[in-house]
Amino acid sequence: MPRKAVCPTFLSTGSCPDTTCRLKHDIILCKLCGIVCTNARVYEIHLRGKKHRRRASGHSTVYHCPICGINATGPTVWQSHQQGKQHQGNAKRLGISADVEPEEEVTPPGFVWCSICNANTPDHLWAAHPNSPRHKAKLKYAKYEAVIEEAMKDKHGIVVSGRDDGIDFGIVEPAVAQIGDSATITVSNTVPSSKVHLVEAKFSSGTRRPSAFSLEDLRMPQVVSYGKEVSCPITFRQNNVGRFYDRIEFTFEDTLLKSRFVIIRTVKATVGSSADYELLRPVAPYVPRKRVARNPETELVPGVPPDTLRSIKYVVPLPDAEIPKWLSSLLSQGARSSVTSRIRQSALPASLTSETHGRHFSNLLWVEEYQMDRDMEMYDMHDATLEKYNSFYYLVVPGLAEKRPSVLVGDRIAVQPNNIEGGKWYEGFVHVERRNEVGLRFGGSFSYSSSQRFRVRFRLNRIPLRRQHQALDVAFHPERLLFPEHKHIQANVPANSAVLTMYNHLIASNPAQVRAVTQILGQPAGSPPFVVFGPPGTGKTVTIVEAILQVLKQNPRKRILAIAPSNSAADLIASRLASELSPEQMFRFYAPSRFKNQTPDGLLDYTAVTAEGRFTAPPVSTLKRYCVIVSTCVSSSFAYNVGIPRGHFTHVFVDEAGQATEPEVMVAIRTMADNATNVVLSGDPKQLGPIIRSPIARDLGMEESFIERLMKREWYNASDPQNDLVVKLVKNFRSHPSILKFPNERFYNGELQPCGDTSVINSFLNSPLLPNKKFPIVVHAITGKDDREASSPSFFNIDEVTLIKSYVESLRADRRFRITEHEIGIIAPYNAQCHKIRKALSGVADEIKVGSVEEFQGQERRVIIISTVRSSREFVNYDLKHTLGFVANPRRFNVAVTRAKALLIVIGDPSVLCLDPLWRSFLNYVHTNGGWKGNPPTWDTSLPVNDSGDYAQEVRELHVSDMNEFARRMEFLTLEGVEEDGEEPDANVDRPWRELE
């Protein structure tokens, strides 16, 4: 029967003049919560509910700020608002203290407060607000929570154990879980005269997948007598690790009232190692860092810089290149979209050309610097201590090991004693960097006592940015290098490959690599940039090294500057060149802040070191004698700054060019090249691009690398085998065909050819770890929990860490499929997860490399294990981008799954991963080929994937459907009974509906 509707006139005014109105008029308003209750019974239930109790206790109290005129929900949000930049700025403008007491909730004029959405809505939108998708979704979820809360209550004198937290088996060791673990729920009757039977007990999840929990030896129906307990034994049995959750529904029948009612309890268990969970559990609850507005530094007392800053004699000074005040002001005001639009209109040139190139990217660099500087503010410390030892003051920096913040020798940190107000700060230069602390040196006027507390500000190291600005400011901006046109292409005379003797004999059998080398050799001086497009495992670095050696072999008087975005990539080039070049022929330049223990032993002879043990550069006369100089992109500016003349280098080679920003690549090109210098770029625009912190800079195009921009020009068609400016490598020497197949078809049109050493790529076929012995990919599905701790925003997942440890132990213990620690790599998208994995593997496998996707680009391992980390049950309020985080990025995915040679293991929660169409396609591929372990998929893997489909919305709708079905079932069980005593047919129907709502 339909329920009687509430009178809209009574609902809006509190009275109804129509005496013939047959609609409901017994509603009650809870003024504390703003909730409308349809009668006294519902109001009583609301008063006992979680929402009302939380608001009554102050957790959901809405505070009003008298300074800013806005509301803040709860004490935590109020505190955050009070410390925020907007509040502090408003107080300062009004000339009053920012430390004010909050007032009671105020709905601003022209707004209506919606208690369901916990937000103010403008008057002119209020009429439409109840019908908005957001309000309806919130209302559905609120009703669902009300149904759950009502169903959890003991009622009619029946008491079921585990009221508040349900039944928790805790952490169950895998061996025990396989056999089965037991717990007991008790049911008791507290009313002497009642007659109640337990008629059914079942688990809710059984409709979608088999439950890990079961009720055993429980007779139905069973009398629940007064004074006696009915024991309901529950068994938990599971072969998979992870977290398991269910609800058990107890249906009772009151034989005197001839009605049924339901009581539910949650049941949960975690399968894993209790020792690992104890080791890895959060050390403290997660509390987000609060950004505190910085007061200006009116006086900065200089510190004592380390010798590293003076270890190289530069003759060309770096420009200051400070952010213009007008740009800083523009960036500080307004929403992201409006700021982006204003910068595009007022700061950037109307078109990007060779003449406007420098100004365009200088502005983008400043936009990025503004965000970097703000990000550094998040690490400011407000109650720190210093420990003095000799001339150094040691500061413990939480998160330093995770590079949160990143601090290097030569960086500056400002401190101010807590008992001093005003703008006077003391500059401390970093002289010592250790795992979790730095050693600082201050100027002579710095006073210190062991009991003194300090404010600490981490200052952005601007030297790399200044080097890029320096390059962008030079007058050299040739169109043929920056914006090549067809008119710049010169007739190429490629070398005769038949007479070439390759240093790497494997290249001779690879036509694409041979063509790349011969094209580079045949380029006339002053040609447009040449691109070696190298998808994963195709040997682009090998090709670049071969080309460098062949250029020198063709003409020993050539001079080459070889650069890469990272030290690891530059070390790889130098190490491979070192097999053919002597220390007299090649120089590896390192920044003076780098430590010798961070350098491969085989390259130390190719460096220059001061008497104090710091890296340096030899005199210009010596530098000019080297055939090859290897450096990172940014550090390559040393050549210009020490006085090497423009045009000295005949070639500039840039490896892994897709990972560098355009200004980084320009450091070498615009300062060292002349009209005859040739530039060679190698990389893959479909793998990871440069890391850009500013969303505005990303919107304005800074995330696009130089090589990616070039390859969008019509002259760089990689599919044309006769193109003189680009060669695409297609032979993959890394991965087993099954590992290569999916990314090959997804990103490279199926053009890649598996050519790996069969003794390597087939080395894990028939391994006991494989569900399909001929398919060397495993997706191990696990439902875990992603956590954060203390002030670190980085996520970790203990359930996945323990599973990774188990895989590593199995790999190392297998005597048939032998593997060393150096042949295993573990990739995780979050720093905190990497830290937890290293901690779990300490003493087990310390030499395994654990790192982010960025750290593995350009690298390979025989076995790769990927931990995807994110796992969530908040399906109704799903935000795909927020929940998947870094995992939902096609380039990250491409790099991660193409690092493995012989075995790829992916560990994650498929119910989260499947929300992304790319991941869903990959999971379907693995499941179809029998590579699945753990919990089965929750969707049909045989169905085609819609790449533009909103699977997050589908999951939301599915779980809303589940919520509605559960609510209907609860209502039906509560209503089921015998109608008698001449009551109207709908008399009992109304009451339970109102009760559950």
Automatic annotation (TrEMBL):
Residues 988-997 have a biased composition (Basic and acidic residues). It catalyses: ATP + H2O = ADP + phosphate + H(+). Keywords: ATP-binding, Cytoplasm, Helicase, Hydrolase, Metal-binding, Nucleotide-binding, RNA-binding, RNA-mediated gene silencing, Zinc, Zinc-finger. Its EC number is 3.6.4.13. GO terms for molecular function: 5'-3' RNA helicase activity; ATP binding; DNA helicase activity; hydrolase activity; RNA binding; zinc ion binding. Residues 977-987 have a biased composition (Acidic residues). A zinc finger (C3H1-type) spans 1-28. The keyword Transmembrane helix does not apply. Its main location: cytoplasm. InterPro entries: DNA2/NAM7-like_C, DNA2/NAM7_AAA_11, Helicase_ATP-bd, Matrin/U1-like-C_Znf_C2H2, MOV-10-like_beta-barrel, MOV-10/SDE3_DEXXQ/H-box, P-loop_NTPase, SF1_C_Upf1. This is RNA helicase. It comes from Ceriporiopsis subvermispora (strain B) (White-rot fungus).
